[in-house]
Design brief:
alpha/beta, single chain, seven-stranded mixed sheet, 12 helices, Metallo-beta-lactamase, Chain A, 36% helix, 2 domains
């Protein structure tokens, strides 16, 4: 089983720039691609600790603070013992050095990345430089690497952002048709098609305003139906210049856009990929990944804990169930069954008897413990004006 997780960023009252971060896991290995910055990096690290992720595999898409700050914090935190740090060779940025203003920023990027590399090496972490065309495998986590680095910084690029952004590492999880990167490439469709990738679900580069209408149309035609981006806009998709014009263009041209106000979860097993968002299953599509479903059916105690809100609500519940090794489909089915049966009995169904006999009859038919659970939900529904689960 593969699980790809993009944490929710909340609903901002103003534009908040937290950067990027996501986790890809097969249940044993945890690949972290970027890890946000500032408070969001701290929140992300707390999540990793809650999940008991001790030895992650780290990857930095490019040398900008809002992507590498959290990675740096993970390396410094004594709780973690990372296996590997993936990044590109800082030497590869030196082609952008010249005497123009833009190259001053490139020098800073080289220095920042080299500092993280030195920090990792000091802790005994293996550092591996990724380059265009690499194939990386960690058991069930398999991806191809693509990178197109511009050869120079334009004279009018006063900060050198475009040079480093467009040279972001791209990670293509070919078995499930998922493509993700950092702030680039600028012409994402052109790059995807140039390397023969077949993308069904993708992350809009952080500077998504670079995704033009023609690029969005091309992505749709080649088979991409869903995408996601870090929603930094309180007024909706495409309302600020920083990130989301590309999201708006994708949406206008028939690609479903998921914002990361709340968690996004992707599950893959048995040659199917499932996308969860806004507390529901959005879609299922075929893929070549044939790993088995390793998620467990819920016990009656798990179902009780869901009613007690121990797994949270909405997208957070789906995330927590998956991370606990529980099947969200089957768990929701059991929760819905208990709720509906309780409501059915309240509405006058006496087919299971009354009082202790009803509890025993439900236990006999559906399993030990379900009778009392249904009775508890009956009591809860009768004693509350509304029940949210």
């Amino acid at each position: 089983m593969l699980h790809i997780y993009m944490p929710g960023l909340g609903y901002p009252s103003k534009e908040n720039r937290y950067g990027d971060g996501q986790i890809i896991t097969d249940g044993n290995n945890y690949l972290i691609i970027d890890a946000f910055c500032g408070n969001m990096a701290d929140t992300f690290i707390k999540k990793l600790k809650t999940w008991r992720v001790k030895s992650p595999i780290l990857a930095i898409s490019h040398a900008h603070y809002d992507h590498y700050d959290g990675i740096s914090k993970i390396i410094k935190d004594s709780y973690f013992s990372p296996k590997i740090l993936y990044c590109y060779d800082p030497e590869s940025l030196k082609a952008g050095l010249s005497n123009n203003k833009g190259s001053k920023e490139v020098k800073s990027d080289i220095s920042s990345l080299q500092s993280i590399i030195n920090l990792a090496k000091d802790k005994g972490i293996t550092v591996k430089y990724l380059k265009h065309g690499d194939l990386i495998t960690h058991k069930d986590i398999k991806f191809k690497v693509y990178r197109v680095q511009p050869t120079k910084v334009a004279d009018d690029d006063n900060e050198g952002w475009s040079y480093v952004n467009d040279g972001s590492l791209c990670f293509y999880f070919y078995e499930i048709g998922y493509w993700t990167s950092g702030d680039g490439p600028e012409r994402i469709y052109d790059v995807i098609t140039s390397v023969g990738a077949k993308v069904k679900f993708f992350k809009i580069p952080h500077h998504g305003n670079n995704c033009t209408k023609s690029q969005a149309i091309g992505l749709k035609k080649q088979g991409a139906h869903f995408c996601w981006y870090n929603h930094l806009e309180p007024d909706g998709i495409g309302t600020t210049e920083f990130t989301a014009y590309g999201a708006r263009r994708c949406k206008q041209n028939g690609i479903t856009v998921l914002d990361s106000h709340t968690d996004i979860n992707i599950l893959a097993y048995d040659k199917h990929t499932y996308i969860f968002h806004n507390a529901k299953l959005l879609t299922t599509y075929d893929c070549s990944y044939a790993g088995k479903n390793t998620l467990n059916e819920p016990s009656v105690n798990v179902v009780r804990e869901v009613f007690m809100n121990k797994f949270g609500a909405g997208d957070l519940r789906i995330t927590n169930l998956i991370n606990a090794g529980l099947d969200p489909f089957k768990t929701n089915k059991q929760v819905t069954f208990v709720y509906n049966l309780a409501k059915q009995i309240i509405d006058g169904d006496n087919s299971y008897g009354k009082n202790q006999a009803r509890i025993q009859n439900i236990d006999n038919k559906f399993g030990l413990g379900y009778g009392q659970l249904v009775q508890d939900e009956i009591n809860s529904l009768l004693n509350a004006k509304s029940k949210k689960w």
